[in-house]
Amino acid sequence: MRTNKKIVYVCHCIDTEGPLYESLEATFERLETSIGIKIKPSQENLIKIQNQEMDLGGKEKVASLIVDKNLINYNDTWDKLDNMLDEMMSKPYRRKYADSFGNGLIYNWFILDHIGYKTNPRRRDIGYHNIYNHYTVKIDEHDSYQDEINWHFHPMSAYMEAHMCATSFINSPHLYESLARAVIDRCWFPSAFRAGFNTERPDSHWFLEQWIPFDFSNQAIELTELDIQQMDNSDGRFGDWRRARADWAPYNPSHDDYQAEGSCRRTIFRCLNIGTRIRLLNEDEVDKAFIRADCGTPTILAFTNHDFRDMRIDIENAHNLIMKTSKKYPDVRWCNSGAKSAARKVLNIGNGDGINLTTRFDHKKDSVKITVETDSDSFGPQPFLAIKTFDNKYMTDNFDFQIPRRKWTYTFDTNSINFKSVNKIGIATNDINGTTCVEVYDSTGEILQRRKL
């Protein structure tokens, strides 16, 4: 007999970064970085590598994977990307990949801001809110409100190059400003996250622990020979999840090691790749998710790819894997799902009425104090405080703690920020269920927007 517990929640988590361009020379530079072999850039050589017709000392197969025709056929303009999105987000297309309940595809758009780069050879769309704005318009156009908008982040590279990977939240000044702008300009704040380059480190681990309940970044998997041959990912260089759980069980990380189980509050979920060159979802991994559900444990099967490639190929391949496995486990149903929605269900935490904020402004001669209270425990130790000045600077700061996870104050004065310079104030917090409350005030204390997500 089927039970409600024998269910797999399928979460397509898309690293939503907008268009990406790559020149022929850049393709060969990336290939050299990955396999350690320098090859003269040419269309002829590219075709030879793709067809495994060039002697690369045993690395022919991995090289052909890295420069696979589908992987380097980028959506390098918004027009190309939109042509794909318009089909993908249509109701007939979604219904083509319906789940056990007859419900169509649901996408989880993990968005970011490309900000602060000095060089941009991949022609990324630079600017605050650019990706968010584009996708919220698309969601409106297609009446796609079943989709979730969540958060993705790329740390800043040392030389501010938009095409380079980095790992440091501490060295990323746009981190706080991007979130502060999201709070004040869009009345939005995330509760689910996917790591840029699939990479976490202690600084990002501790940052997330302050505010973000759900983390879809774990890519623990037994590496294949093709994975091992890719030098740019060796020794945990990017996407290091070697010590994390390599099954579909979520876990709370340890304070000192995000890969080990511990007593931190956020929950880390596994999310493997599709449509790329490493740590790929396969039939065995889909089987593991269905086996776990068949034993009576609701399970999230999450996978990720990028919007700058043709995701339709990946969607079909992933769907075929799921359909093949579902026939082996007829008692298990599977459900297309939002990431936050699925997290609440498998953790059995619900969403209830969500957290509510109350904010009070106390004006004195030389200072203004705001007092923030919640009617239930916040997820992290404090809300996120966003401040916009009249000269369009966005910043954040720490609260003073009055009652941990329930009541805080912040004082604007000569020791912090002169309140006369303050234009708007935003406050955002999540509860343990991932329900977000955001408030935006003007400098008089009048509320401009309140939103619950």
Computed over alpha carbons, the radius of gyration is: 23 Å
Rounded to the nearest angstrom, the distance between the terminal CA atoms is: 36 Å
Q: Which of globular, elongated, flat, extended, rod-shaped describes the shape?
A: globular
Q: Helices and strands: which structural class? A: alpha/beta
Q: What order do the strands of the largest sheet run in, or round the barrel if closed?
A: 1-2-3-4-5-6-7
Mean pLDDT: 96
Order of helices and strands: EHHHHHEHEHEHEHEHEHEHEEEEEEEEE
* Beta fraction: 15-25%
Number of helices: 12
> Uncertain runs with pLDDT below 50, 5 residues or more?
none
Oligomerization: single chain
Q: Tally of extended strands?
A: 17
Name the helicity range.
25-40%
Largest sheet: 7 strands, parallel, barrel
Can you describe this structure in just a few lines?
The protein is an alpha/beta fold and 453 residues long. The chain has helices spanning 24-35, 43-50, 60-66, 78-88, 91-96, 130-141, 174-186, 202-211, 225-228, 283-294, 311-328, 339-347; strands at 7-16, 107-111, 148-153, 192-195, 214-218, 267-273, 299-306, 333-336, 357-363, 368-374, 384-389, 394-396, 400-403, 407-412, 422-430, 436-442, 447-452. Helix 10 packs across helix 11 (311-328).
